[in-house]
């Protein structure tokens, strides 16, 4: 290698792309699960108990 030459950057873009995709998919999945089990499931459970109580009061 001649003096002062810049070494070739090989494979950096591919490694960065794999890292970015992994972080994006992993983070998206984690946030999806957090929403589903932290917000959606409890609200559905509250709704279902409300309608069950309403139905039992009706009878």
UniProtKB/TrEMBL annotation:
Q: How does it sit in the membrane?
A: Single-pass membrane protein
Q: Which domain of life is it from?
A: Eukaryota
BP terms from Gene Ontology: mitochondrial electron transport, cytochrome c to oxygen
For this protein, what is any one GO molecular function term? Answer: oxidoreductase activity
Principal localisation = mitochondrion
**Subcellular compartments:** Mitochondrion inner membrane
Q: Which controlled-vocabulary keywords does the entry list?
A: Membrane, Mitochondrion, Mitochondrion inner membrane, Oxidoreductase, Transmembrane, Transmembrane helix
Give the residue spans that cross the bilayer. Answer: 17-36
| Pathways involved | Energy metabolism; oxidative phosphorylation
PANTHER family cross-referenced by the UniProt entry: CYTOCHROME C OXIDASE SUBUNIT 6C (PTHR28264:SF1), CYTOCHROME C OXIDASE SUBUNIT 7A (PTHR28264)
- What protein family does this chain belong to? Belongs to the fungal cytochrome c oxidase subunit 7a family.
The name this protein carries in UniProt is: Cytochrome c oxidase subunit 9, mitochondrial
């Amino acid at each position: 290698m001649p003096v002062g030459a810049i070494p070739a950057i090989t494979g950096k873009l591919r490694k960065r792309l794999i890292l970015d995709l992994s972080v994006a998919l992993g983070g998206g999945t984690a946030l999806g699960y957090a929403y589903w089990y932290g917000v959606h499931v409890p609200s559905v459970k509250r709704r279902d108990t409300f309608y069950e109580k309403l139905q039992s009061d009706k009878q």
